[in-house]
Design a protein that fits this description.
The protein is an all-beta fold and 301 residues long. The protein has a domain of 143 residues: Methylamine Dehydrogenase, Chain H, CATH 2.130.10. It has no helices and 28 strands. The strands form 7 sheets. The protein has a 4-stranded antiparallel beta sheet, with no helix packed on it. It has a 4-stranded antiparallel beta sheet with strand order 5-6-7-8, with no helix packed on it. The chain is 0% helix and 55% strand.
């Protein structure tokens, strides 16, 4: 995972190395091993939080990568997010959400138990911490203002196929959540205010990531299983598929150019990043990259 600020970037490897990068020179300024196994971290104005799989903890560091606090959880940790003076995360093995108050010595001030089966991802929408689960068609909502929690059910009881569906950071727009259904070939559209399903979009495969173009006109989806070589473009206005693009051998992630005209797709088995024109789905470039996964920076054009 990588996060970029105006001056520095921070990158976390799966084997637990956290690096501070000068974005002007692309050089590593500081590097520190913070975990033996991890998949998630986040940044606030002053802090970085890393959710560990091994050891089973959440580590808080400052921007110079000095450890401020270690929260031992006895679980693999995911869905790490900052909200105001809170740090919030999920305990995958305990089916819990913990809230840490950074103004109270980084003390755990709230534990929500029995949140759902095997939490796997989360995002912040307004004052709500929205948790997704590996098992079952549901998501959890924790109101971070009053600490009330409830479950929202949708669809049928599904099971994941190969790769894990993710909420990501771009799957909410204009009060609606576009949720990759677990074990179903569709996106579920939910009104977050009413918490009612307002529709769905049928797909050619099992969705993983859902992202929006910068102008919020197009949704892009990639897949797990037999269709992992495709990505799909969908009109946000009418929820209709614009084009299914055979984009490579295994598409791990995708990102729009800042003007929304192009989409970049990382092709893990193809050892390339492939670029497509969203107007007609035509491939316009193929860039050699060894085993690419996420895409975190794209050209301004």
């Amino acid at each position: 995972m990588v996060y970029f600020g105006s001056r520095y970037g921070y990158a976390l490897s799966r084997d637990g190395y956290l690096s501070k990068i000068d974005v002007k020179t692309d050089k590593i300024l500081i590097q520190k091993k913070v975990s033996g196994d991890t998949v998630d971290f986040c940044l606030s104005k002053n802090f970085i939080a890393v959710g560990g799989y091994k050891p089973k903890n959440v580590i808080v560091l400052n921007k110079e990568l000095k450890t401020i606090k270690t929260v031992n959880t006895g679980s693999r940790n995911i869905g790490v997010e900052f909200y105001k003076h809170y740090l919030v995360f999920e305990l995958m093995d305990k089916d819990e959400i913990w809230v840490v108050d950074m103004q109270k010595g980084f003390r755990v001030v709230k534990k929500i138990k029995h949140i759902g089966k095997m939490p796997i991802d989360a995002l912040i929408s307004g004052h709500d911490y929205i948790a997704s689960f590996l098992l079952g068609q549901k998501f959890g909502v924790l109101n971070l203002n009053d600490m009330r929690y409830h479950i929202v059910n949708y669809g049928k009881k599904g099971s994941f196929i190969h790769q894990i569906p993710h909420y990501g950071i771009y799957s909410i727009w204009n009060g609606k959540a576009f949720i990759p259904a677990v074990g179903e070939k569709k996106l579920v559209v939910m009104n977050l205010k009413t918490e009612k399903e307002t529709g769905s979009v049928g797909l050619i495969g099992y969705p993983i990531f859902v992202i929006f173009s910068p102008d919020h006109k197009i949704i892009a989806v990639n897949y797990s299983g037999a269709k992992h070589d495709y990505l799909t473009l969908i009109s946000l206005k009418n929820k209709k598929i614009i084009k299914n693009i055979k984009a490579g051998r295994r598409i791990m992630f995708m990102s729009f150019s800042r003007n929304g005209r192009y989409i970049y797709a990382s092709d893990y088995f193809g050892n390339s990043v492939n670029v497509f024109d969203v107007r007609n789905g035509a491939e316009i470039a193929r860039i050699s990259v060894t085993r690419p996964s996420g895409i975190f920076r794209v050209p301004k054009f």
